[in-house]
Predict the 3D structure of the following.
Amino acid sequence: MPDYSHTNPFDPLPASARRPPAPGMATDAVLAARGTRLAARLLDQALFYGPVMLIAVVAMGLPDDASDVMGIFFGLCALSWLVLIPTQWYFIGTRGQSLGKMALKIRVVDSDGRNPGWLRALLYREGARGLLGAVPYLGLVVSLIDSLMIFRRDYRTWHDQLANLYVVRAPGAGLEDGDAPRLSEVRSPGGGGGGATLVLGAAVALLAIGGIGVAAAIAIPNFITMQMKAKRSEVPANVDGIVAAERAYHAANGAWLPVSNEAAAMAEVSGKAPRDWAGGADWDALGWAPSGTVRGAYWVEVSPDGAEILVRGICDVDGDGDLAVYSTDADARAEMTTDANVY
């Protein structure tokens, strides 16, 4: 009968059946703590998505020509990825460490404690994680479940198990303060590749790349649309401001004030680039001026009998030649009279 007297009560293998440590592998190798793994993952995510987040933050408050400035930022973002992604792949393939794992002194190893190499660490493990997260909508849920698998006894997620890999403390990092088990206590016998094949790994990688492409194809147009809507929102806000000024003028003078005209407004529309407000005597008489630069142009029409007004605002923030038009009378708020997809 096998001797179970010195076996970890949570370990299905008796002590006599455990494989000896690989040559050069410290016998006290400890699995990386769950919190450390999470912190390393968040650090890698920050490095990857940081440039995009910077672009989004800057874009929300850009007062200048968006097409030029945003082009520069997107270029810098692409350049950072061209440097970051090969760097991450190189360290994962040669050391079993991403930049986040290097910073927190943990690494990916096989069941013998050795560097798993490019195929298992990069293609199987990272490719599987990419595939899990690339599925639209469902990917978020599956990725969350995958992350929660770290609370198993062997601290392994699904993508760890696919490649039969483990995450341990790197040499020189010292032991964890917690009670994380040792690699020798949880590693699977045989040390195989978890049943993964080259075809499976290639399929995982291709599906992950395809999923990222689909996500980008959805996210980038949505981002541009959101930006256009934010810039166009200047027009209804200013039209409502002009209406308020007309009401004040009417209360003080007993009449509405016609201001500018359609032809003048058409000549003033600036397109993508904002411009300084030109103003004029009629706008001064009304007592209204926008705050800062503008992309739109405005005018006020008074009915022949002087009883009603029509306030209009136009813009072309995407520079395609199609004008977005807002209008209202003295008793309502600005409404768009052109198609919602016109900017």
